[in-house]
Amino acid sequence: MKVYFSLLFKISTRAIRQVGLHPVLGALLAVAAFITLTMVLYAQTEWAGLFMVLFGVYFQSLLMSTQRTEFLELHFGKRQRRRIRLIENSLVGLPFFIVLLASAEWLLCLLFVAVTGVTSFFSFQQANVRSIPTPFGKSPYEFVVGFRRTWWVLMIACGLLAIGIGVDNPNLAVSSIVAIQLAIASFYSTPEPGFFVWNSNRSWSAFLNWKLGLMLKNTALLIAPFSLVFLLIYPENWWVLGIICAVGISLIALVVLAKYAAFPNAMSLPHAVIIALCVSFPPLIPLAAAFLSANARKSLKRYLHDPNQ
To answer: DSSP character for 130?
Structure first.
């Protein structure tokens, strides 16, 4: 088990070095980004503690695939596999637990600890989600895969909307749209194979415009039902909904640009920090978009030819 965690540590440090950062600096930037996002969340909603639990459970769920569980059990045995999964869940959930503890969210702390322990014994069969139908058959890669992987976020969003309306809390109701936007941003966390980009037969600028257009259309498709219900119940808060949708879609667009700025590698830590800064200070979004677009151009020109240049 010690060898396993040593290997994970080496893989993590190597990934940070590949984006041009010293592991210590990368860790400090990640901590700073997490603290910044947490402060923004707690400043914006009184339900921040519940969101911390949901985010923590989401990141823990990424470790719960059946294939990964079978791999651990094959190499370490059933008993050691459970210990490894419990340690992994604890390490992933520790930042969220510290925030809940510092905020004196005692009930949520107990709930999070219980969920952390229970989920270490379970796994998800990822193959089953492939049969879930999606409305994104003509939108390659991100939305088809992402929707099938995070369909449960839509269920949570429905619950937030219903509870918010039930207790007459428009802030909680509109947070359902924020949850969907966060899920959509996660769709772009994994780069597709370079052949898929090359095969698009577009210039780098046309390719980015195409990807951003698909993102805008599909995002509108997902959030439209929630937005309509919100406007029917709280028409006086139309401006809140407008700001959240505009800022959220702009940040998702930054994620798209950041994905291709680092292509064919995964999104780099500096790009993630830039997006985190834009979350805390949205007026930076235009500058960040220009910077990420320039980086995306350099990355995509290796795969795509611009006939105008």
So the answer is: G
